[in-house]
Amino acid sequence: MEAAGLAGAGLAGDVRGECGRRAAVGDVTVLVNNAGSNTRADLLAGDLDDIRLEMDTHYYGTLAAVRGFAPRIAASGGGAILNILSVLSWFSVPDAGAYCAAKSAAWSLTNALRLQLADQNIRVAGLHVGYMDTDMTRGIDQPKSHPADIARIAADGIASGAYEIVADDISRQVQAGLAAGVPALYPQLAGTSH
């Protein structure tokens, strides 16, 4: 967020634990949940521990951080929580089913938290982004956004009061495709019926 001109401090750690217990001392007005994992676990044949890791990281880890920091944000007079989601919270790919399901759950969590925290003057937003140039996407041969560019888009979205921040072309395309239905999102299913 520094690239976007915002001051802050990062807390590194395993979000699957009670990272909320380590909630920052002092005023907190913005929380950015940016935990990541991608085991590429297959939902039907993958190791259940890998699938649980995805849910523990993306869903329960996000929830634990919000539970830990929301009281601090409220005590500071309100602010924002930004959950870093993915275009894959709206769309699934075969080789990352567990990741996609966990990100979809995180999107639903974002929507639920948005409703629960509104009366505490806390705006909860979700950032949908395709591939960012990070260690996690190093082996993927697709166009990637630079993290500093995404940080600026995220900061602008928070400043404008957006609930959903759609950061790149692929995310905009998939978002538009949601209204077109399953065959539009998954052409491989067109013409199949059971």
Please work out how many helical segments DSSP would assign.
5
Total of domains: 1
Label the overall shape: globular
What is the average per-residue confidence, as pLDDT, rounded to a whole number? 85
Radius of gyration (CA) equals: 17 Å
* CATH second-level architecture: 3-Layer(aba) Sandwich
| CATH topology category name | Rossmann fold
Derived from helix and strand composition plus strand pairing, the structural class reads alpha/beta
Low-confidence stretches: none
Q: What share of residues are in beta strands?
A: 5-15%
The first-level CATH class is given as: Alpha Beta
List the strand order in the largest sheet.
1-2-3-4
Give the topology string: H per helix, E per strand.
EHEHEHEHH
The count of β-strands is: 4
Characterize the biggest β-sheet: 4 strands, parallel
Helical content, roughly? 25-40%
| Ends distance | 48 Å
Account of the 3D structure:
The N and C termini lie far apart (48 Å). This protein has a single domain, classed as Rossmann fold. It has helices at residues 48-75, 97-117, 147-160, 169-178, 182-185, and strands spanning 30-33, 79-84, 122-128, 164-166. With 194 residues, it is an alpha/beta fold. The chain contains five helices and four strands. Strands 1-2-3-4 form a four-stranded parallel β-sheet, sandwiched between helices. Helix 1 (48-75) packs parallel to helix 2 (97-117). Helices cover 40% and strands 10% of the residues.
